[in-house]
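Dig into these lines:

——
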Amino acid sequence: MGKMGKSTRPAYRGSQTVDPEIWVETYADSLYGYAYVKINNSSLAEELVQDTFVAALGARKNFRGNSSEKTWLFSILKNKIIDHLRRKYRDKVQSLDTVSDQGLDEYFDDRGAWLNKPGKWKDNPQERYEQNEFLTVLRDCLTFLPSRQSDAFQFREMRDFDSEEICKILGISSTNYWVVLHRARLAIRACLEKNWF
């Protein structure tokens, strides 16, 4: 981005300064890194950072100085990411009634007690996670899950979104989210025990 002209003079709010001319040089790399971790797509991460700068440029007059300029930009980016993912998954929204209970009967009795308790893992899960072969098996396990379960698990465990963000992205309630995530974890555990551990 080049010089933006006179309209981009720093705006002063309290002790905080908003200076769009330094945004790219000062914040672009860290914003991009954050977006890439959450989205796992280089060109989309770049686009979201650019959208963040454009939105911040338009909203800089509203900056109240309650946080640092960097925090403010990250907040805008976070909302851009959630909005993008929400649009992406809007078509996948299902009610809890459509989430299948198939396959859970083999784990629990009518009272919800384990029929066949999961075996103990002998290895350190962190060490296993770091192994490429394990990641391949985990990704294969994720492909067998219903898309809602797979998405919820990946957003929570692999992309570090919090539950409120995931509910917004997937368009589900908090109760539905926890049920979907629980079912995903059970299915993944069973798949990993069968195919890896």
Observations:
- Residues 93-195 form a domain with the Arc Repressor Mutant, subunit A fold (CATH 1.10.10.10).
